Amino acid sequence: MPNGDDRLVILHEINFAVRAGEAVAVVGASGSGKSTLLGLLAGLDVPTGGTVRIQGEDLFALDEDRRAALRGRLVGFVFQSFQLLPALTALENVMLPLELAGKPAARQEATQWLARVGLATRLAHYPKHLSGGEQQRVALARAFASRPSLLLADEPTGNLDATTGEAIIELMFSLNGEQGTTLILVTHDEAIARRCDRSLRIAGGRLDESSPSLLV
Q1: Is the N end or the C end of the chain the one with fewer CB atoms within 10 Å?
Q2: Rounded to an integer, what distance in angstroms lies between the CA atom of residue 84 and that of residue 151?
Q3: From CA 186, how far away is CA 10, in angstroms rounded?
Q4: pLDDT, tens digit, for every residue of 147-160?
């Protein structure tokens, strides 16, 4: 990425593949490039070189509108900061991507997903009236409601206390297993990373080849 007359390189020679249904943790120190990698995998950021393929589709051969359409069809997101729309209720936040995808039963599906994450009595609540854990449950319902092939999670417990975070991780892995979703999870928590099938460690913007690629 340009920085005046210099070029700031955040990621170098990153090359890996993820199997369908696999859960992969991306770990590393703060500032190592983990979140940047996730943004590139989602097509939210555009690299100066290289390619990302999802189900054989080259993200960066598509224009911005077609990348957005592919994300809406195949990718779900869970963020550290929840990223709920404050002017929408919990139900409306989950309904929104379903409506954008043209789902005819968006309200019914969103209601079912919120019940699945334990929020059946909180449908009409706005984010400001929900706890952090409840907001992340809404975010999980929203992510899984569109039945994505790929779930990208960026430090999903980063803004939660330990007990709430553990409950959210249990729920996320349970939903992920039920749906057979491919999961790429950025985390600084080694205990969470060990729950994944494999770990990719980023150090100084590179894959750390010396660290084990499989967690057991």
Answers
A1: C
A2: 17
A3: 16
A4: 999 999 999 998 89
State both tokens at 189. Answer: 């928590």
Tokens of 210: 């010396």
Residue 177 φ/ψ region, left for φ over 0, alpha for ψ in the -120 to 50 degree band, beta for the rest: alpha
Query: How many angstroms separate the first and last alpha carbons of the chain?
Result: 36
Residues in the chain: 216
Q: 150 and 74 in contact (C-beta within 8 Å)?
A: yes
Q: Reduced to 3 states, what is the DSSP secondary structure of residue 171?
A: helix
pTM for the full predicted model: 0.87
How far apart are alpha carbons 41 and 14 in whole angstroms?
11
| Rounded Cα–Cα distance for residues 198 and 118 (Å) | 29
Phi and psi at residue 130, to the nearest 5°: -110, 145
Mean pLDDT is lowest, of 9-18, 83-92, 171-180, for 9-18
Q: What angle do CA 180, 183, 189 make, to 5 degrees?
A: 130
